[in-house]
Structure formats: C-alpha cells, structure tokens
C-alpha cells in the first residue's frame, strides 16, 4: 500500500457539517489504519472564531474508539479563523502553515479542501494563488472541490475557466463521492476482470439498463440549498451520470486516471440529447406531498423549512435515454432518484434479452421474466443474478431463482468510506475517481436543455407523490409494455410477496 508524502490538509469551511461528519472521521480512519505518513497535519479554516483546542473538542465527538489514538490524532489538528474575502487573512494563514510545517518537519505539500458554500469556489483558489499557494515548485498543491460544481452549464464552464487560470487540471480534484464507493469501483472489476460478463455486455444481449438511487430521507434541514437545486442537479448531473459512465464505458487501456476518464467522456459524448418534444415522454419529475408513514404524519416538501411554499423543485426524477454508440444503440437506459421513497437503496439492474424461442411457456413460466443481474451499490452491497431453474419433479415447471453474493460475507472486511478512499487517492496524486473538467461539462450539457425546459415551460407537469411511495406512477409509463422498474427492498435478494422496507 502506498503512503502519501508528509503533507498538510487545509479544510476550508471547517465549522460545517461535512468536516465533522465525514472529513475528520475519514482522515482519522486513514490515520488509525496507518495509511498516512508519520508527519502530517490538518488545518481547519473558517469564519467562526475558535481556538485549536475548541476545534479539537468539537471534532472529538465524531471520533470512534481508542482515547489514546484519538489524542495523538487530535494533536495534529489546528484551526485558523479567516475572512474568506480578505487577502491579508490568507497571508496570515500562510504564515501559520509555515510554522506548523517547520514544527512538524513537513515539506510544502498542501491539499486544500473546499467544503465551503459554492459561491466561494472562485474566491478561495484565487486568494490562495495570490498568497503563492498554487505553485508546485516546492511541493504539491492540490484542490478538492465539493459539489455542486456549478449550478448550470454556463456556471460550470466559468468556474473551470476561473480555476484553470491559476492551477493545472492535474491540481484540481472535483469530488463525486459516488466514485469513492467501493461498490461503484467494483463495477469496473465485475466487468473487466471476468470473462463471463463482457461478451454479453452490449446491445445484442442486454434489453435495458436501470439505475435507481432511492432515499427514504427528505431534505433534512437543507431545504434552502435543495430548493435551488432539485434532484436533477443534486443527484443526476453528478452521481448517477458517473455511474452510467462506469456501466457503459469501453474497457480502458490501463487502470489510470486519464485512460478511464477518456472512456467515461466518450460515453457522455454519445448521450443522445433529449429533444423538447420528447421531454414529457422521457423525463418525469415529481415532488413529495404530505402523507402518513408507519402511523406518523410526514410533511410535504413545500412545508419543509427553507422551501418556497409554491416550490416547483423536483424531489424525484425518472428518465429514459439512449447512448448512441456501437455498444449501446437501441438499448434504453432508465435512471430514477428521489427523496422520501420507501427505502434507501442504490442499485443497477442489467436486464438481459429473453431466449429467442420460448420452450417453457406452456408450463406457466413467463419467459419475458428474463435474466437480471443486479449490482447493489448500497445497502447490503453485493450482486444478485436471477435466472430460471427447473422445479424438482415431473414435467418442466420453471421458477425464477436468485444467486447472490453479499460483501458482508467476506469475513473481516469493513468497506472504507468514500471520503477515506478519495482523500487518500488525492494525497497520492491519483485522480482516477475524480471528475475531469470535460466530463463535468458534458454531464451539464446533457441535462441543461431539460432544466431549461422545466424553467421556461410551465405546462410541463410536476407530479405529486405521497411521501413514502415510489414516486409518481407516471414513471412506470417510461418503460414499454408490461415491464416496470424493479422495486427493491433493503435486502438485496428479498423480493416477491414479502418485502422489508
Ligand atoms: C449528496 C446529495 O451529494 O448525495 C444528497 O447532495 C444525497 O442530497 C446524497 O442525500 C446521497 O448520498 P448517499 O451516499 O447517501 O447515497
């Protein structure tokens, strides 16, 4: 296992939720697993006035385990108050960083993590550059930028332009935490390390591809942000399209950042644009309304705090689209995501074509109930294959059965959090699991016409769905014929009559 060179991680927006809930616990876990070098430090930076001790105390609450290890870890954490728009404060911060480095004998390797409100994504990198903290002559200087990367195509292009004035592309790490998920990376392994899948992974054998990411939670106090975003920007533009990239890409020549990102880019370039006249048949948007879940009254989206009571923001999107290339021509891809759905689950369903001749129809087997390969991203991470088997006994009665693998069955394996993996990769200079400039812009380019149509054409419906249901029933109409979405349960292999939600 490679260990990064000694470094300082500087977290901007350190008083926010992400720092205490995800970033510090991830760095702590890397420390506990001996994946960080002997010399490293973390400097939390934000507007809030705090001392090092006060900041450490706040972070302590979010660390599990051993008191002695936690104390060693917390001693490597420092804090600096800053006014983000004041150049003097960056110079002051630079001095502080130099002091910390000389105390701990760390060269000028810096990872700057922007976990601030997005309106600062232009300002902080520019100010860092003015304080001479972008030059790599004396050590690496890398930027991690949290989502949202732009609010539309134009702002994403302009943000890229502004960053690239002072930084090289290989210094910029646009984070998409879905790419940090173990099971998303395993997609590449499933496809390219096994001789059995790749030969059938194309239009000749696959009838359709379905990707669902359901959440049972609502906006959870983030109404102000979410109401200006919506499910298309919040989940589809980034996480789900990146998953599409992994499912649909050609085999990369090598497992290296650019080789993989070239292939993802080729998929995005092949996405067939959805025309205005196709929109209502290919994209369904919804918003949850009040309902009763397990006897509890649950408010509708418009009643959430921070949300406009007349809001037209979508909390659910289902869409159908095509990838016009050699491998996928004619195969529909379906994407679905929403808040306040019955359960939290993200999975990919590869539905294979049925056999050409239906030998067992007479025995009551619906041969259109074809083979499905289900790749579960979360929870109960694993893989499920559905196929027909003969019922023991006379005749030829066929039943659909499951063959399933669960990550939890690999003893002693704890899946690392996405942030652990991504922070470590960035410290090692490996950008494979980060979005490149062109892929981010291409993803925006695909969804921008849909967002524009929604904003400008008030005749496009937004369907209500009661909180706790699978979204508007109109989303079923996207799929032709008798077939519907797979309605997954918490446990990968549970289906049929019984379903634990
Ligand atoms: C975030 C979105 O990027 O991803 C949230 O802003 C969403 O709205 C979250 O809840 C989902 O991530 P996960 O890892 O829980 O599937």
Features:
17 strands, 13 helices, 9-stranded mixed beta sheet, binds 6-O-phosphono-beta-D-glucopyranose, 501 residues
Compact description:
This protein is α/β, with parallel strands linked by helices and 501 residues long. Helix content is 31%, strand content 20%. The protein is built from 13 helices and 17 strands.
Please provide a written account of the structure.
This protein has 501 residues and is of the alpha/beta class. The chain has 13 helices and 17 strands. It is globular, with a radius of gyration of 24 Å. The two termini are 39 Å apart. The model has no long low-confidence stretch (mean pLDDT 93). The chain binds 6-O-phosphono-beta-D-glucopyranose. 6-O-phosphono-beta-D-glucopyranose (BG6) binds next to loops.
Secondary structure layout plus pairing:
Blueprint: E1 7-12, H1 17-32, E2 40-46, H2 52-60, H3 67-74, E3 77-81, H4 87-104, E4 110-114, H5 123-130, E5 141-145, H6 153-166, E6 172-174, H7 182-192, E7 206-214, H8 223-227, H9 231-248, H10 257-269, H11 279-282, E8 283-289, E9 291-293, E10 296-298, E11 316-321, E12 333-338, E13 345-352, E14 372-378, E15 382-390, E16 398-406, H12 418-427, H13 437-456, E17 463-466
Parallel strand pairs: 1-2, 1-4, 2-3, 4-5, 5-6, 7-12, 8-17
Antiparallel strand pairs: 7-13, 8-11, 9-10, 11-12, 13-14, 14-15, 15-16
Helix pairs in contact: 1-12, 6-13, 9-10, 9-13, 10-13
């Amino acid at each position: 296992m490679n260990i990064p060179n000694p470094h300082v991680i500087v977290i901007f927006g350190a008083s926010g939720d992400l720092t205490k809930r995800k970033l510090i616990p991830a760095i702590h876990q890397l420390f506990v697993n001996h994946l960080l070098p002997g010399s490293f430090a973390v400097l939390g930076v934000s507007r809030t006035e705090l001392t090092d001790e006060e900041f450490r105390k706040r972070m302590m609450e979010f660390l599990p385990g051993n008191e002695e290890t936690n104390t060693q870890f917390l001693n490597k954490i420092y804090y600096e108050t800053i006014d983000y728009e004041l150049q003097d404060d960056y110079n002051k911060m630079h001095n502080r960083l130099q002091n910390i480095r000389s105390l701990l004998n760390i060269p000028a390797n810096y990872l700057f993590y922007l976990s601030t409100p997005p309106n600062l994504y232009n300002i902080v990198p520019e100010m860092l550059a003015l304080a001479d903290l972008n030059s790599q002559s004396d050590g690496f200087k890398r930027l991690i930028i949290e989502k949202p990367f732009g609010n539309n195509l134009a702002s994403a292009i302009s943000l890229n332009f502004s960053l690239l004035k002072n930084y090289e592309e290989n210094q910029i790490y646009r984070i998409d935490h879905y790419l940090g998920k173990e099971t998303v990376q395993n997609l590449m392994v499933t496809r390219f390390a096994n001789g059995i899948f790749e030969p059938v992974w194309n239009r000749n054998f696959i009838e359709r591809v379905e990707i669902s990411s359901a959440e049972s939670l609502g906006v959870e106090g983030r109404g102000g942000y979410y109401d200006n975003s919506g499910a298309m920007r919040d989940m589809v533009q980034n996480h789900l399209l990146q998953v599409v990239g992994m499912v649909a890409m050609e085999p990369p020549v090598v497992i290296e950042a650019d080789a993989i990102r070239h292939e993802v880019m080729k998929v995005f370039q092949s996405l067939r644009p959805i025309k205005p006249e196709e929109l209502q048949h290919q994209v369904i948007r919804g918003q949850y309304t009040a309902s009763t879940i397990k006897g509890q009254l649950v408010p509708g989206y418009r009643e959430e705090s921070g949300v406009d009571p007349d809001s037209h923001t979508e909390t659910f999107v289902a869409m159908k689209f095509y990838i016009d290339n050699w491998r996928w021509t004619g195969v529909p891809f379906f994407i679905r995501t929403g808040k306040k759905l019955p359960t939290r689950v993200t999975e990919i369903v590869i539905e294979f074509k049925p056999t050409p001749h239906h030998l067992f129809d007479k025995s009551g087997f619906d041969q259109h109930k074809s083979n499905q390969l289900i790749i579960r991203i979360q929870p109960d991470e694993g893989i499920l294959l559905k196929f027909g088997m003969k019922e023991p006994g006379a005749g030829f009665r066929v039943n659909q059965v499951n063959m399933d693998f669960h990550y939890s069955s690999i003893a002693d394996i704890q899946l690392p959090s996405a942030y652990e993996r991504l922070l470590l990769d960035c410290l090692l200079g490996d950008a494979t699991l980060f979005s490149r400039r062109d892929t981010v812009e291409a993803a925006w380019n695909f969804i921008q016409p849909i967002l524009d149509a929604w904003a400008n054409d008030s005749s496009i419906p937004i369907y209500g769905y009661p909180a706790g249901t699978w979204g508007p029933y109109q989303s079923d109409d996207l799929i032709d014929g008798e077939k519907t979405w797979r309605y997954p349960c918490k446990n990968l292999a549970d289906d049929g009559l019984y379903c634990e939600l």
